[in-house]
Amino acid sequence: MAKVLLIAEHDGESLNPSTAKCVACAADIAAADIDVAVFAESAASIAAEAASLESVSRVICSENAAYRGGLAAVLAPQIVALAGDYDYVLGPSTTFGKDLVPRVAALLGVNQISDIMSVEGERTFKRPIYAGNAVVTVEAPAGVPLVATIRTASYRPVGTGNSAPVETLEMSADVPDHTRFIASETGKSDRPDLQSAARVVAGGRALGSAENFDLIFKLADKLDAGVGASRAAVDAGYVPNEMQVGQTGRIIAPDLYIAIGISGAIQHLTGIKDAGTIVAINKDEEAPIFEVADIGLVGDLFNVVPELTDAVD
Amino acid sequence: MEKILVGLKRVVDYNVRVRVKGDGSGVETEGVKMSINPFDEIALEEALRIKERGEATEIVLVSIGGGEAQQQLRTGLAMGADRAILVETAEMPDPLSCARALLEIVNRENPELVIVGKQAIDNDNAQTGPMLAALWGRPQATFASKLEFSGNSVRVTREVDAGLDVIEVDLPAVITADLRLNEPRYVKLPDIMKAKKKPLDQVPLADLSIADSPVIAETVFEPPAARERGIMVDDVAGLVGALKDKGLL
Asked: Distance of CA B226 to CAs A134, B18, B25, Å?
């Protein structure tokens, strides 16, 4: 049976939802044994979460202070030390996985498949290129480990209820001292996480200021939605970078996406094309966002958004 | 530091709406505007600013591709790089082979810093930077939005999904540039003239004698699944009604 090693993503405390989505992708590979590797300073509760995921065969858990911050230079050699037993080494196509997995692939002397969006066969996959304007089918060679990142927006998380065995693993490779984690500045908020929220409200340049972005937050709070933004709104300093949706920001797939004052550059659209329903509110009826919107409303957001906020129970 | 190596890739311009060829053999690049990969342009701009602050002496550009990639290297020279190297090959190699070729150039040039874009906007692989760092056995700082040099190390602010991470890496190192690292300058006409006289060396890829990589084959290209045409509503009441119809409110 094919063996998969999936690298878990976490923030030091809990498992990132990207891991459960990667398990769903791995489970699409015919008859695969899926092991999840957790590298953390303090791994027990993260490993327990991973062990609860359906389709997981085993959790490999390695604890060391050096894993703080999830540095690629530290983790990659540890993963390579494990990889000999596996046919597949997989990680999420999040900033964590995009940083780490190519380093693993290069150390293993193989190429990597980035952003798997569907499994077509044991070594055949589809992935988006050109900001999602084309999809290419790729075929990995046999006889070498298949290393890949998974486009998490293409998958629904697997359920929980499993209790896979957890095995402890001693650190086996050297830790380089040339790379040091200093700090994380994360925008902790009480709103639903942008990546996993069922509803997302996003604002663009047309908001005009950080203060006006409050309109977006108010509507989002009414809808219990996550909040996103276009690159233009982030570049203009209205909101921080972690809210950017698009080719170079988050790729998301909420059930409902409401784009407000976002024109809809192709780089933005690639971040939302898996959304269930896209609503566009824009005063420019020619805006490209209307080409992909399921429901469009041409109007001035400064009138429409407060009215919509009031109309939502 | 003595030297910064900057990688530039020639790609289909950011503003071009790419189309898949009718026979599914690739995307249409005939007669399409080509440019420097925008993230690589940011990488170069950062190198120029480091040099202008007096923290580096020489900026060397490197590209891998056909002879036409000289255009993008000349643009990079016009922006202010000192010289350029084109690793010449008719077929674009796979990412691992690119990283191996870059490693050969790194071993010849011995830069203290390599800066490349975080990804190329054609294949969106985002692999070359970390792969080069791995093969070189050196640190990587991906998705950089701010660099602060002190002594033999650089403190890098990285744009990650959760916000910002700060890491410190010793030189030499590989940095990959994210969008908000800087805003690249425009090229001025006199600089284009000057750039014609700057050295541009061509090295055939075959001369670098890199190992063969197991290549991932790209078999069929297709357009993405189209979304169905939506509806337009006249007002907020119409929008709320449409959302209720879909069970979303």
From this structure: 11, 15, 20
> What are the chain A neighbours of B165 within 8 Å (beta carbons)?
69, 181, 183-185
Q: How many domains is chain B built from?
A: 1
Mean pLDDT of A63-82: 97
> pLDDT band for position B226 (50/70/90)?
confident
Which of A226, A191, A216, A174 is CA-nearest to residue A306? A216
A184: its two tokens: 């994380």
Domains recognised in chain A with CATH numbers: 2-168 (3.40.50.620), 199-311 (3.40.50.1220)
Residues of A in contact with B227 (CB under 8 A): 273, 278, 292, 294
* Residue B90 predicted with pLDDT over 90: yes
Give the residue numbers spanning the domain of B170: 3-245
Tokens linked to A15 = 């498992």
Paired residues of B223 in beta bridges? none
CATH at residue B119: 3.40.50.620
Say which residue the tokens 């008719």 belong to: B90
Rounded to two decimals, the ipTM of the complex is: 0.96
Name the DSSP class of B169: E
Task: State both tokens at A65.
Answer: 């202070």
**What pLDDT score was predicted for residue B231?**
96
Cβ atoms within 10 A of the Cβ of A65, count? 9
Q: For A199, which residue in chain B has the nearest alpha carbon?
A: B248
Average pLDDT over residues B91-120: 97
**B235-245: pLDDT as tens digits:** 999 999 999 99
SS3 of A147-160? EEEECHHHCCCCCE
CB contacts of A115 in chain B (<8 Å) are 124
Work out the average pLDDT over A50-70: 97
Q: How confident is the model at residue A32 (pLDDT cuts 50, 70, 90)?
A: confident
Contact B179 A247 (CB under 8 A): no
Q: Is A139 on the interface with B (CB under 8 A)?
A: yes
Flag if A184 and B165 touch (Cβ within 8 Å): yes
